Amino acid sequence: xxxxxxxxxxxxxxxxxxxxxxxxxxxxxxxxxxxxxxxxxxxxxxxxxxxxxxxxxxxxxxxxxxxxxxxxxxxxxxxxxxxxxxxxxxxxxxxxxxxxxxxxxxxxxxxxxxxxxxxxxxxxxxxxxxxxxxxxxxxxxxxxxxxxxxxxxxxxxxxxxxxxxxxxxxxxxxxxxxxxxxxxxxxxxxxxxxxxxxxxxxxxxxxxxxxxxxxxxxxxxxxxxxxxx
Length: 229
Fold this sequence. Notes:
The chain has helices spanning 16-26, 46-56, 70-73, 76-79, 95-102, 106-116, 126-129, 141-146, 167-170, 176-182, and strands spanning 2-6, 31-34, 62-64, 87-90, 120-124, 134-137, 151-154, 162-164, 192-195, 199-204, 207-212, 215-220, 223-228. The chain is of the alpha/beta class. The chain has one domain: 3-Layer(aba) Sandwich (Rossmann fold), CATH 3.40.50.880. A 7-stranded mixed sheet has the order 3-2-4-5-1-10-11.
């Protein structure tokens, strides 16, 4: 499986080096952009607009897949847009909404079909979080500080971790990471991955390779692994 998990920064100049690496390594002829995580936002289409402008620099056509709700996720006309996608990208927003919208959907079936055929799958922030075994969501940043309102969901389990994006930003707030982890229910084990902003970890051929300005921390039981480019 070819998988790229971004901590943040999708469709901006801040991740140009990551995108150049992915394009050179996987040689996609196009990229399908899915803004479902922002489906409850009035300006959700901005993610597609940003992607079109960003990937024009790389002469990479964007397949626009405006799936914003559960009905869209089961719309065959929209899911068929993925049939020729070389690279599929889920942008950021609300991770709980994204997961609940696309789980058990025709869209997710189409995504997995393409990935199993050698396509590259990527997600940033919320789009990365759903790829883990579990994920957390919260109604606001303030609620994360208090530990109230945090909800935990099963993820798609493409990697065996709970994924925390924007990791370097969250570490600036003393104790916040521990507070988030402490809210997890018993079923959520202690293995988790923190991905810094404007940074990605890329899985292919069984290896995890970091690209970008920051790093990745992998916490497994009592061991911590620090990865950088």
